[in-house]
Specification:
Layout lengths: L14 H4 L6 E5 L4 H12 L3 E6 L2 H9 L5 E5 L5 H15 L4 E4 L14 H29 L2 E6 L12 H21 L3 E8 L8 H4 L2 H8 L14 H8 L10 E4 L11
Parallel strand pairs: 1-2, 1-4, 2-3, 4-5, 5-6, 6-7
This protein binds nicotinamide-adenine-dinucleotide.
Length: about 270
């Protein structure tokens, strides 16, 4: 190939198309609130075909009402395998395929390890880790069969760093990072599996922290940008991982963390 053959026209996609998610069948679990809601709204605005799933169907319906594209709402508790299987059935009945999946739901119980009950530990593992695996495995089967798909698991900056009172949560988020890598290795080359690792974002999940002024101010100072993220700030990175723009990227956790993971703090 000489230089004149290497033009923008023979790239795998034009720069405009690289970030295209229009018509991509996109499953968002946790679509009723916070980051899932923001991702659903963002992908809806770009013309994706949506499946909005959540335990909280009223909330998912409210998200759906704000989106003017083809969409279905499915009740799904990710701690129940039959719900996740039903989510897939409804998706395939309606759209016949899945192009993108965001495996999002997560909860937290913020307590020192010595005070955390075994039931609390189990509840966090059940949703954050086993729930993501149920979604990943069931949706992954379809993507592997199709020989196509981009899966994005919701991890956290706590996949990378730690703080006291996060033992169950950080354990699940560290595990999601490794799960993402293994699935990426097993499902290559046709299916890509990545993760997103946000810092504290202004959602109901961190209400407890935001309502305590001292705790809130302390946490804000942990990252380079000295603030919490807004839910919509996870949308750009999500589009990147879902689209052809990231087609050489798999098994990766994209930190959306205001530089927290490597910040040593002020001196
Ligand atoms: N907000 C943050 O600071 C932050 C930071 C890093 C990572 N995350 C991760 O992002 C994800 C979303 O968090 P968020 O802040 O948007 O929280 P959120 O509480 O605003 O939303 C979570 C959504 O998940 C749904 N959900 C809970 N349990 C479910 C279940 N069993 N089955 C189906 N849906 C269920 C809830 O109904 C809700 O709609 C979580 O995995 C969380 O760990 C959040």
């Amino acid at each position: 190939m000489n230089n004149k053959d290497w033009t923008i026209n023979n790239w795998y996609a034009t720069p405009q198309k690289m970030f295209d998610v229009e018509d991509k069948v996109t499953v968002v679990t946790g679509a009723a609130s916070g980051l899932g809601r923001a991702i659903a709204l963002g992908f809806g605005a770009l013309g994706a075909k949506l499946v909005l799933a959540d335990l909280n169907t009223d909330g998912a319906e409210e998200t759906a009402a704000e989106i003017d594209v083809e969409k279905i709402v499915v009740k799904c508790d990710v701690s129940r395998l039959e719900d996740v299987q039903n989510l897939l059935k409804q998706t395939l009945d309606h759209y016949k395929r899945v192009d993108v999946s965001f495996n999002i739901p997560g909860i937290n119980v913020r307590k020192p390890a010595l005070e955390l009950t075994y039931d609390e530990w189990d509840s966090v593992i059940e949703i954050n880790l086993k729930g993501v695996f149920r979604c990943a495995k069931e949706i992954g089967k379809v993507m592997v069969d199709q020989k196509k798909g981009s899966m994005i698991n919701m991890a956290s900056v706590f996949s990378e760093i730690v703080m006291p009172r996060q033992v169950a949560y950080a354990s699940t988020k560290g595990a999601i990072r490794q799960m993402t890598r293994v699935l990426a290795a097993e499902w290559a080359p046709h299916v890509r599996v990545n993760a997103i690792g946000p810092c504290y974002m202004e959602t109901p999940l961190v209400k407890q922290v935001m309502e305590n002024k001292e705790w809130y101010e302390k946490v804000k100072r942990q990252n380079m940008l000295q603030r919490f993220g807004k839910p919509e700030e996870v949308v750009g990175p999500s589009i990147f991982l879902a689209s052809e723009a990231s087609r050489l990227i798999t098994g990766f956790m994209l930190l959306v963390d205001a530089g927290w993971h490597c910040y040593g703090g002020e001196v």
